[in-house]
Amino acid sequence: MTSIPRVVVIGAGSTGAATAHDLALRGFLVTVVERGEIASGTSGRNHCLLHSGGRYAVNDQESARECISERRTLEEIMPDLLERNGGLFVALNEEDLAFKETFLAACEVCGIPARELPLARVRKMEPFLNPDVLAAVEVPDAVFEPFHFCLAFLATARTNGAEVRTYNEVLELRTEGGAVSGLKVRDHRTGVTSMIGADLVVNAAGPWVGEIAAMAGLSVPVTPTPGVMVTMDVRLNNLVINRLNRPADGDIVVPQRATSIIGTTSWVVEDPDLIPVPPDHVSRMLACGQQLIPAVAKVKVRASVAVARPLVNKTGGDSRNVSRTFECFDHAAEGVEGLVTIAGGKTTSSRAMAERVADVVCAKLDKQVPCRTRETALVSYRDYYR
pLDDT tens digits for 311-333? Predict the structure, then answer.
């Protein structure tokens, strides 16, 4: 091991980018390898929602608390990247209306600011909202642009010496004496294959973490769980519009720049690279979106996409009921040193995920440096290209 430990981070999505930033800030020599472009996996095709935690307040309070805490932190360290437009949870029928008090109580328990708004005011805020809504609760949701989100973390990591290698696919993990000591990559632009040595490797490959772990004969309980999202060609709402009920298919419309994104379904696949976009899922999203915003029926579809969430599912239960929290796996417990996996979570919690795995890296490499990412403002995402 060199005097300054070298850590290789696999994956340049939100988790890998935030991890590179944290480790570089703590003084490690960091190399990020990504088989495609930055944010070309799950992070680049997500819902663009910076969660208030309201979506999970009733059924998944650990995730809800993580989301509201991290939403506040990200507002401090990357204010120029967020559209702090807020969100509404709206009741469309009596069942939704009956859920309102449960929702408000759960938000209070989780520390999520939530208040019911007068419907007359809501209709002025959201003129295309279903006029028959029975109630509306405001929460501090926000919106971000995923590519810029990841670039900001990586740009800041590079100011602290990190190297980012895009289009470098991991072919194998090199092991010596029961420990991972590096990896073999192929540069898809040049076709050149090379080895990268490492004192420790962080597996932050999202729904592909299982494939990376398998290279060392390991397994992680991550289930690739896709969801279909449909993007409309016009921005129909100012705030994030959620259905006031437990999470279900087609219960949210997120405004993103000049579009609105309806989502999402949920099922399980074996291979996160082979995800179909079932036509019936698209139809379901459009039908559900019309219930929230009837004008969806009059707007062209810009795109439909399906991407896998990397859910940590140890029980094999229904994906809708799996917690959206995250977990760090030190594979030394399974007899393989030098490899740590970070999985689960949301883009909203990527900084916290990075802090967790960086703490593990510090403990393993005997480098006692505290985390400073909560108070360190990120440089502009534009600096990545300067």
Answer: 987 665 555 556 678 999 999 99
Q: Which strand (E) or helix (H) includes residue 155? A: helix 146-159
Mean pLDDT for all residues in the chain:
95
Domain 6-42+147-221+324-385 in CATH 3.50.50.60? The answer is yes
The string of DSSP codes covering 339-361 is EEEEEE--GGGHHHHHHHHHHHH
365: left (phi over 0), alpha (psi -120 to 50) or beta: alpha
User: Would strands 179-187 and 193-197 be described as parallel, antiparallel, or unpaired?
Assistant: antiparallel
The separation between CA 212 and the C-alpha centre of its own chain, rounded to angstroms, equals 19
Q: How distant is the alpha carbon of residue 259 from its chain centre? A: 20
* Residue 264 identity (one-letter amino acid): T
What type of residue is 28? F
Residue 241 in tokens: 């519009």
Q: What's the rounded Cα separation, in Å, for the pair 153 and 131?
A: 41
pTM of the model: 0.95
- State the pLDDT confidence band at 88, using cuts at 50, 70 and 90: very high
Determine the Cα–Cα distance for residues 78 and 289; give it in Å rounded to an integer.
30
Residue type, 263: G
The 10s digit of each residue's pLDDT in 166-199 is 999 999 999 998 999 999 999 999 999 999 999 9
Domain extents in the chain: 6-42+147-221+324-385, 86-140+223-310
Residues 301, 286 contacting (CB under 8 angstroms): yes
> What pLDDT, in 10s, does the model give residues 18-47?
999 999 999 999 999 999 999 999 999 999
Query: Is there a cis peptide before residue 264, judged by omega within 30 degrees of 0?
Result: yes
C-alpha to C-alpha distance for 197 and 146, rounded to whole angstroms = 30
Instruction: Report the CATH fold assignment for 86-140+223-310.
Output: D-Amino Acid Oxidase; Chain A, domain 2 (3.30.9)
Q: Which residue has the tokens 């519009």?
A: 241
Q: Are 35 and 46 in contact (CB under 8 A)?
A: no
Contacts 24+ apart (CB under 8 A), 59-63: 59/246, 59/247, 59/321, 60/323, 60/324, 60/325, 61/106, 61/109, 61/110, 62/323, 62/325, 63/323, 63/324, 63/325, 63/346, 63/349
